[in-house]
Amino acid sequence: MRKLVLALGVCTVLALGALAFTSRSAVWQGPAPGDSLAAPTLAAGDTAGLPGPRQPIFFRHDIHAGQYKMQCQYCHYAAEVSQEPGMPSSQTCMGCHLVIAGSDSSSRAEIAKVRDAHNAGEAIEWTRIHSLARHAHFPHMRHVKAMGPDACMTCHGDVARMPQVFKVNNVTNMGWCITCHLERNVTRDCSACHY
Amino acid sequence: MSKETNEEQRPGIDRRQFLTVAGVAGVGTAALSGCSTDRIEKLVPYMVGDEDHVPGVATWYASTCTECPAGCSLHVKTREARAIKLEGNPDSPINGGSLCARGQAGLQGLYNPGRLLGPKRRDADGSYRDITWEEAIAELAAQVGSAGSDVHVLSGAGAGSFTDLLTEWVGALGGSLVRYQPFDNEALRAANQQVFGRGDVPDFAFGKAGFILSFGTDFLETWQGQVENQRGFAESHGYHDGHMAKHVYLGHRMDLTGMNADEWHPTHPGSDAVVALAMANVILSERERAPADAGTLRSVLAAFTPEQASQESGLAPEAIRRIAREFASHKSLAVAGGIGSQHRGAVEACAAVNILNYVSGNVGDTVVFRGGRPAADGYGALESLASELDAGRVAVLIVHDANPVHTVPAATGFADKMAKAGFTVSTASVMDDTASQADLVLPNLHALERWDDLRPAAGVQALMQPVMMPVRDGRATGDVLLEVARTVGGPLSGLDAPSFEAYLKQRWSNIAAARGRTDFRVFWQEALGNGGLFDEAAPGADVRLADGARRIGFQRPTFDGDGEFVFAPYPSSMLYDGRGANKPWLLENPDPVTKITWQSWVELHPDTAASLDVREGEVVRLESPHGSLEAPVYVYQGVHPGVVATPLGLGHTAYGQYAEGRGVNALDLVSGEDGAGFLPYLSARVTLHKTRRYQKLAKTEGNPRQLGRGIAEAMPFAAAVQGQTPAEVHGGHHEVNTEREVEAIAGWGEAQRERLDKGDYQGEHPNWGMVVDLARCTGCSACVTACYAENNIPFVGEQEVVRGREMSWMRIERYFEGGEDGEGFSTRVVPMMCQHCDNAPCEPVCPVFAAYHTPDGLNAQVYNRCVGTRYCGNNCPYKVRYYNWLAYPKLNFEEPLPLQLNPDVTVRARGVMEKCTFCIQRIRGAQHQAAMEDRPLQDGEVTTACAQACPSGAIIFGDQHDPGSRVAQAAEDHRGYHILEDLNVRPSVTYLAKVQHGGEH
Amino acid sequence: MTAIATDNRPTQTHAEVTRDVVATLGTQSRGYTLMLFGAVALFLVGALTFVLLLKDGLGLAGYKSPVMWSVYITTFVFWVGIGHAGTLISAILFLFRSPWRTAVYRATEAMTVFAVMTAGLFPIIHIGRQWVFYWLLPYPNQRFLWPNFKSPLLWDVFAIGTYLTVSTTFLVVGLVPDIAAVRDKVTGWRKKVYTLCSLGWTGSDNQWRHYTRGYLYLAALATPLVLSVHSVVSWDFAMSIVPGWHGTIFAPYFVAGAIYSGVGMVFTLLIPLRKVLHLEHMITEYHFDNLAKLTLLTGSILFYAYAMEYFVAWYSGVAAEQTTFYLRAFGPMWWAGWTMIICNAFVSQLFWFKKIRTNIAALFVISIFINIGMWFERYVIIVSSLGNDHLPFAWGQLDPTWADWGILAGSFGWFLMYFLLFARTFPIVAIQEIKEMIPMPRKRAGGHH
Known about the structure:
The complex is a heterotrimer of chains A (195), B (1001) and C (449). Chain A has helices at residues 2-21, 44-47, 61-67, 72-75, 90-97, 105-120, 140-147, 151-156, 174-183, and one strand at 126-127. In chain A, helix 5 (90-97) crosses helix 6 (105-120). By secondary structure, chain A is mainly α. Chain A contains 9 helices and 1 strand; from the N terminus they run H-H-H-H-H-H-E-H-H-H. Helices cover 43% and strands 1% of the residues of chain A. By secondary structure, chain B is of the alpha/beta class. Chain B has a 7-stranded mixed sheet with strand order 6-5-17-16-15-7-8, sandwiched between helices. A 6-stranded mixed sheet of chain B has the order 22-24-23-26-21-25. Chain B is globular and about 85 Å long. Chain C is mostly helical. In chain C, 69% of the residues lie in helices and 0% in strands. The relative contact order of chain C is 0.19. Chains B and C meet through strand 29 and helix 29 of B and helix 5 and helix 10 of C. Strand 1 (126-127) of chain A pairs antiparallel with strand 1 (42-43) of chain B.
């Protein structure tokens, strides 16, 4: 009898503990951060193991944002002026890829997809990775303004090192927002986000 | 908030992208998930980058409202390339920045689930089948080609380029064009012709008048430009530093306009002419400085004594004399010709009122003839078209922007006559009563999807532009006409414009040239951006009496049948001529007078009801020589005992799911025959039969009496001038607390504030507050629709309203005053929204902090935290918390209605409490904007949807902590008071007591 | 104990008592079976209704704004109230050593536990998003959110929780010796079960000494709860500013009402039960007479409270209060208002007459009136007060639907189901306490064998 009670007690404590710490999400262990941002060349085989959903076009953030150090806002221009980050139009892609056809066969193939889609006038349907519930309002421009160019990494992880983007932090989790707002001592008023 | 044109970018986006981009914003069914955690799976970008549309940022376009002929200018708010809200264009001399409920509900015409997906052709068996536009136009062209000159067009379009094109088009064919609008002021124009020798409608300067006398004319509802009139009325009748016009209303029913009168006298229907003439007589015989030629009227007017008028109207002779003298001693304005009192003697009535205005020297002053107000051809023209149809002389009938089968009494048999036309075409975008009889239906585009312009008033040329891709596969009728012209050729070959857009631009290039503007592109961009051209109104013409003025007279108007009651149908301020009946926002926005939604009803005076032993909700059958109808009774003190009144607008045989088969069409009891060139709405007597059946009225009113609780305060004009407070007027009614109690409460409040000075609550914050001026508020309910549109409030439907479950965050409470044992009957209105109490009773009782107080003084409701115990709702003394008993958005927002939803506002899920938020999304948006620009928020930078829409400017919103702000200063007004102040809940909404002339009410 | 030896109390031997009580276990009587089936049927009705509520929302019920609480909260308070008689009788009367409780306290304790179990369901049933009811509990979470301890609803959660725990413990502890007695009478798998439940009870003097001491402390612990729980429940209303709720009289008023309704329910349950289980000679007029006196007392307190409510409303001079109480008597819900006053204030006065107090049939009929009256008391307080509060324009009258009645019926089914199963499985009459009251036989029949 006493044993049973003891066991129950322990279980309860563990359960509560677990609840309390679910918000502590793992820090991403990406490709070993080296000095150069040179993106690895990936053969078709290598991509299978990559984390994150497979996109209709194998867009390499590690090449664009990493190797060529393009600003996030070059494509996601809305993020610094609007609450919605927005997705770049395929015209934006063509701006460069009219001239850049790709270095190796695999990249050429992917770039061809973009060109074809654009010429065919078909929108590219990207698979969404980060999405907040509709009852939480996240003004991107405020965060970009407050935290500078590296703002994006804070939530989206070191995209510049990701051959394929995947969810690093559980940003849909309110604990994620609150922890950050606590550390930076900024508003925790519910109605700042919920209305 | 840029308002730019979008023609450059337009070809860039196609409909598919419009919808998918909407997907990025997560509207549509995704948005309906509200507090649940549905996710949007795909991200679909624009094909071509569009500087006009930054995702998440609103783009504004200027356009023009077509919900009634008034021609108000619009600012259309679009997000992710779809229109989500309509607001008034501040530049417009007609509506300023405001807009009425009907105008705002135009969005639900745009996104109406009943809109046709494409053109339809009726088969021999009467069923409709979908056809392509090519087939449709070929068909029409063939019919028109073979019809020769027997093409007749019935159009309700206002004066503008489209109507001009139509005129050319029909003219070239040698056919006939009848321009018909149901409420066309025919009687007024005839009277003007008779008395002043000119048949146009003047401008009425309500804003300049010091004494307004209305003969049963609802100038605050449907007569002329409601918004324009209301703005003027608020200007003169809204109390401001010791000045306020007096408004006297003579009529058989107290409508919204009558509710806003300082005096309402129930006169016998049809007696207005003789009363007006008697007043003119009194004025002329007692007054020296009448216009010179008015003297010639003395002999004519001498016949009309107040005594005689008293016999006809039931209004005491002294009253007539008094009102006449007051009328003469102010800068005054008398109006007549309202649809609600259009009997067979309407022309005489208007003529008489013209005389009254003339002898008082108002013509040219408050009644100004500028010839700017276009009118249609009138009811007479429609009648002759009907006889043409009847004679089978019409090969092709094209009905555009009109629904005669509904708006013309069935007694005229118009529907049957229409059936005799060789081939009938309708351009209705929804299958309405008329379209469902047509052989061919060519759905027109909504006004927000097409190009056009309007000339609604002197000096106003208002433009319309497509603000978004068409929601349905319609086609602008202008383009259809031009394409038919191309196909038919021959007589029509003159019309060679490639598109209506081109046609429109051609005409505007002429305007540019006439104004010496060389660069048309710049001119055009400006015009589109401003919503058109708003010029200084020309000075009024110098108007003198015509010979007809001496032919004025009065004979008692006749009413068909021998029933004991005169039947008085009146235009609904929400549904207008019935075109509002397919828009849930209007159906659910309570009638400002009776507070009934979704239904038709019959108004009876309490005495009448008592004598007949009928109670509210009992279904009665009204029978006139022309027909009969059955509707539930609403017992209303404000209707003449000898009259039964019923609103127009419902009883559609077809017009989409919301309208079809709902309520009754009051016109069924009315005679259509006339000959005088107008439709006599008051033309029948009715007998009333009980059915012993009962129907629960879907009304939002609980108890219409204040029970002495000082909710809607009012004070006599004299008291207001002396600067008295409502409490003083009541003799200290509000002073319930002793001095010690007051001290204690103050000290307690201080302690509260100290305890709050932690975390986010530290430091200086704004304290958002509102002031509602009851002296300006008319109860028109424009704010209600604005709130629905801004805050994604779901409509709940008739049955749920019967259950008292309407979700309207903004509620116009209407209270009756007096009326018992002979004392004067009057009404008061109070807009009731969340008071955002600083000591809110709803906050401490919420077990999960879903209801809590924000640092900036808002009483916030966190939907996603709410578990739905509803304790807050119980503890709210103002009863402004609304609960999602069912999943209303999911149940009621049928495609494509969800496209209207405001992406900045959470759609509430089932089981959560919601309420007015002071438009927190606007506040936060403005704060973000200011923060991005590193500057503090300015007063007036953020306002609520209700305040923005209010035509009377009765609502002021702002930061009460900023002593310079408008709201802080207005709150200091001596008329200011808080509702239920005794509860010490510290509301943030201050009401300014209504002011009334005369002590009797 | 000898002082009451003259009363018409059971004059059996210990063995007979054990025999008769054990005979009630596993009864197959038709009356019992019918009652059980009825209860289960009702419960299923409620369960089905709840499923539909989960699916479509509370809109299925008759809620009409501004009446945002109605039948469910009414029934919640009703059951919490029922839950009071038990602890009162078993704990307080135990401390007062009143002899007549012995025969009935087991039944009333069981009633208490199951009534509170029933009431405990309603906070979940009546909220809009039942699936997040746990947000009402304080637990550490990554959102750093806590419930609002200012809210009376949260006090409810704790009050009910505590009461359920204590009354359950009390019941179980009281059962131990009796289960042991049963254990020694039954065979087969039943014996195993009862052995487990009897927690190794041997009936040694040592055990008895600890047992009685422990029982005494539990009684002392339970006693204040009788007063606290319903006070807290009453504050759900009294703490608000709704006219008709906002009264300092509420706590004592509700506690009295609770005991009144609880005792009423005791009648309703025991009268048929003693017949079905053939316990007439153990639960006698003597017990009912005393229970009736308790009813008379609490009923009279209610009488006073009702009068006082109306007086305070008038005396306060607050228009809203006066209107509310005027409408209670003469408004659209006058019938409910008078039902409550007649069934509670007046019917209870019949117990001045011993003839009625000792007439089983009359007691049963009256107890039904009491149950109805007390349910309507809560209905009137909640619904009519909410229906007409500060803003006349927003007034509205409730009209309940099948969803309201479905849940109400279900709650009765749920309660009766447990009670009947308990009566069949455990001694519904406290064996060892009955025995205590029997004069010692000359020859000691060692142990219970």
